Amino acid sequence: MNVQMVCLADQYISQVNTMFPGSVHDAYILRNSSIPYVMGQLQWHRVWLLGDSGYPNLSWLLTPVQNPRTRAEERYNEAHGRTRRVIERTFGLLKARFRCLHMTGGSLFYSPRKVCQIIIACSMLHNLALRRQVPFLQEDGPDDGVVAAVEPVDSDEEEAEEEDIDNRDSVIQQYFQ
């Protein structure tokens, strides 16, 4: 199962996509979701999403610089990595709060459709728990090695458009020089 999630800085999950099997590339899922439309509407408000290197660099989706050549690009990559850890912590918290989503809690022996519904329900309950400030009651806490490792994937998608690279470069120049 390939799950694409978008979360805010406070770990509130704002979008979940469970419609594609694990063999589908992240960039394909993104292209076939509502995210490009939504982000296109927000683009003029200088709102960006951060993605790993498995995603294309777009005007609204910032990815790491593959081979940083300047100190500004290195600082950008460091800030990008620190900020992206929020989604990794969110995955870890979600899996720790709902052990059925983590491999140590067992497997979900249901149809793929039912598993997708369970993931979405757990995401909604996660948001409700955050909104209602429900304390996390696990003794070891959410960072007990449950964090989902998000490994960069070599993208076999088309090269990012020149303007999208220019947008990332302008972000680097404006904020990391």
UniProtKB/TrEMBL annotation:
<feature type="region of interest" description="Disordered">
    <location>
        <begin position="141"/>
        <end position="169"/>
    </location>
</feature>
<protein>
    <recommendedName>
        <fullName>Putative nuclease HARBI1</fullName>
    </recommendedName>
</protein>
<feature type="compositionally biased region" description="Acidic residues">
    <location>
        <begin position="153"/>
        <end position="166"/>
    </location>
</feature>
<keyword id="KW-0378">Hydrolase</keyword>
<keyword id="KW-0539">Nucleus</keyword>
<keyword id="KW-0540">Nuclease</keyword>
<dbReference type="GO" id="GO:0005737">
    <property type="term" value="C:cytoplasm"/>
</dbReference>
<dbReference type="GO" id="GO:0005634">
    <property type="term" value="C:nucleus"/>
</dbReference>
<comment type="function">
    <text>Transposase-derived protein that may have nuclease activity. Does not have transposase activity.</text>
</comment>
<dbReference type="InterPro" id="IPR045249">
    <property type="entry name" value="HARBI1-like"/>
</dbReference>
<feature type="domain" description="DDE Tnp4">
    <location>
        <begin position="1"/>
        <end position="127"/>
    </location>
</feature>
<dbReference type="InterPro" id="IPR027806">
    <property type="entry name" value="HARBI1_dom"/>
</dbReference>
<keyword id="KW-0479">Metal-binding</keyword>
<dbReference type="Pfam" id="PF13359">
    <property type="entry name" value="DDE_Tnp_4"/>
</dbReference>
<dbReference type="GO" id="GO:0016787">
    <property type="term" value="F:hydrolase activity"/>
</dbReference>
<dbReference type="InterPro" id="IPR026103">
    <property type="entry name" value="HARBI1_animal"/>
</dbReference>
<dbReference type="GO" id="GO:0004518">
    <property type="term" value="F:nuclease activity"/>
</dbReference>
<comment type="similarity">
    <text>Belongs to the HARBI1 family.</text>
</comment>
<dbReference type="GO" id="GO:0046872">
    <property type="term" value="F:metal ion binding"/>
</dbReference>
<keyword id="KW-0963">Cytoplasm</keyword>
